[in-house]
Amino acid sequence: MAKLFKKNDLPNFISTRDKRERLDLITENVPVGAKHLRADRIIYHEGDSCAGHYHIGSHHVFVFLEGKGKPFLTLIKKTFKGVNLALIEPEEIHLGFKIIQKGISNL
Q1: Which of 6, 33, 70, 105: CA 20 to 30 A from 26?
Q2: Nearest to residue 104, comparing CAs of 73, 54, 63?
Q3: Domains in the chain, ordered, with CATH?
């Protein structure tokens, strides 16, 4: 059955390390019953990045909607701008993206 959630009803987190804002879309904190899919929306601000990490048994998909940034990945060296998609393989260590121009978000 379809479910509709208002943005203000979803769990919202502010980073203690920088200005990143996270809104849970499909997680254990949102009662949608999804077992094999997770999604959140993170807004990165100028100068933000994330700590090195990896995901066991799952891909990490970044969808960039606007702004300009630089990925911290071995295989991707170029700066991105505007709408882009990055696919991170399971167990691939990644540091996220250093935001050069504010206003970027990923889903």
Answers
A1: 70
A2: 63
A3: 13-101 (2.60.120)
